[in-house]
Amino acid sequence: MMAIELQFNIRERVFDMRFTFLILLFCGFQNVSQAGDRVSKHSPERNFEKFWQIFDRNYAHFENRNVDWRQQYRSFRPLISEYTTDEQLLSVFNDMVAPLKDGHVVISPTGDLAASAKYSRFYQEFPTKDLQAKFHQVTLENLQKQGFGAFKKFHSEPHQIGGYCRSADFGYIQLNGFGGMAIELFTKQLDDMVDEFADVKGLIIDIRINGGGSPAYLSALIGRLTQVKRLVGYGRTRTGKSKHDFTSWTAYHLAPQGAKQLIKPTILLTSGATISAGDHCAMYLKEFPYVKQIGENTNGIFSSMHGERLPNGWQISLSNGQTVSSKRISYEGKGVPVDVLALHTRTDMLMGNDLALAKAFEYLGINQLALAKETICYEQIALNYYADSLLLNKIYGDITAYSTGLVEEDATLLAPFAKKCNSLQSVYRSDGVEMRVRAEEFADSTFYTQNIEHRFYVGLRSPIQSKKRWPFAKRNGRRLTIAHHINIADKNYVRLHLSQGGWKGETILVVVNNEGSVVEHCFLSYNYLSSQFYQ
Questions:
Q1: Exposure winner among 323, 364, 450, 474, fewest CB in 10 A?
Q2: SS3 annotation, 211-278
Q3: DSSP assignment of 82-122, as one string?
Q4: Measured between alpha carbons, how far is 167 from 82 in angstroms, rounded to an integer?
Q5: pLDDT per residue over 366-397, tens digit each?
Q6: In this structure, what are the phi and psi dihedrals at residue 247, rounded to the nearest 5 degrees?
């Protein structure tokens, strides 16, 4: 019995030893596997390959910025081995992307992915926060010399995103970023500013040191600078392995915001430190005929920052989107061009001078009246007159809906109104219409500038309804389109087209003088299937 018990104990010990050995062996394999995985994740070669691939499949501007990414691979891959240190690897990555000169491209071992204006000439002059703060201080000192009052800061503490002040004739707003505070508070201060600036003759918007931010804040600002909805650009995002794989283009529109708008002759101050949302701001305001840009071109980085992570944990941001203006012009890498060049130098700043600001005041002094005329939207005036008077009083009947058709121009279409419209009779006698027809053959005609280069959509006013679709629209209901806007001599002829379908309808001509007052209106019915089109 004792022998059996002894034999059992021996077997039990042997089993325990084998079990313990298996556990140790398993743990050993697991540790080796984890160690191998850690080594693999930190492998310089693996991270290099992943880095190159991320850019190859996501970056959207190799062609715009004239960089051959495959050549970058051939040039830098031989520098990487299993013995490459983290410091060397980071240096290689930065050298690879340096030719892009893209401030949205950031490689960060710590996860800090801040956009930068480091490739701009302005940044070379003012590379530190202290110098940039001094730059703003000199600007405010120059404003005080021009009679401007106290600078009211936006409530964005601890961030300093700017503020505004005014003189007897002009308003000044400084925006160093689009964000940094609650959007409700930002819009409230913008509305306060609009009220305070209601009687100024001109506006200066300073975004020369602007790090970008949120589109919502940008829309809040620009929505208070336009009285009509405007097409301001298009954007798309890269989606695939091929460099030509993108989403379809999305149109960018900006519409009026706030209870009131600030429609004034405006100067926009920019520099190479105007980046990201600041670039968008300049491109959008380029669509406004009463805004002129002074200073230096913006930086030219329009994409959002697309984030990726390397196997070793480093974070990367890059530009994976493309943006163009309403005229399909890309300012990527070039920046939005200025109308008046004014270089910013540290020497001028240290002498207490702000050349761009001085040129802004000079430009407004010379061109304020001309820019003020550009703030008049004759199409909106004609439509408001139609809604407030002609439609409200049923002078020309009712309509069911409004169509946002792009305004077209053809002076020959004024001919049917020649006998009814007093303003046109003198123009016809002086060959004004014939001269206008010839002018339309050239792309720099008034209409082309106002309605093709600067596309916009007028706003609705009751009782005009927004566009309805079947089955809610009346089958034979008339639809309103602003069909033409033609400027001849000192009058603007805006033609409202009321289509009833079946090639029938009515057309109304509203005549507005250059000061924005309606001086005449007349009406014709038409039937394009009849021998006599207009009656």
A1: 474
A2: CCECHHHHHHHHCCCCCCEEEEEEEEEECCCCCCCECCCEEEEECCCCCCCCCCCEEEEECCCECCHH
A3: TT--HHHHHHHHHHHHGGG--TT-EEESSS------TTSHH
A4: 65
A5: 999 999 999 998 888 888 888 888 877 777 76
A6: -70, 170
Tens of pLDDT, residues 308-346: 999 999 999 999 999 999 888 999 999 999 999 999 999
Strand partners, 233: 252
The answer to pTM > 0.90 is no
Helix (H) or strand (E) holding 292: strand 291-295
C-alpha to C-alpha distance for 151 and 503, rounded to whole angstroms? 59
Task: Give the contacts of 57 (CB within 8 A, at least 6 positions apart).
Answer: 238, 240, 241
> Cβ(524)–Cβ(417) under 8 Å?
yes
| Strand spans (E) along 139-219 | 152-153, 162-166, 170-175, 202-206
Which of 195, 308, 205 has the alpha carbon at shortest distance from 262? Answer: 195
Coil, strand or helix at 467:
coil
Three-state DSSP state, 504:
strand
Report residue 195 CA to chain centroid gap.
Answer: 25
- CA angle 331-272-166, nearest 5°? 110
The residues that bridge with 165 in the sheet, in sequence order, are: 172
- The pair of three-digit structure tokens given for residue 38, joined into one six-digit string: 């850690």
Two structure tokens written together for 243: 């460099």
pLDDT in tens, 196-234: 999 999 999 999 999 999 999 999 999 999 998 888 999
* CA gap 23, 15 in Å, rounded: 12
The tokens of 165 are what?
């002040």
Q: Cβ(161)–Cβ(181) under 8 Å?
A: yes
Whole-number Å distance between alpha carbons of 226 and 194: 12
| Locus of tokens 């429609």 | 263
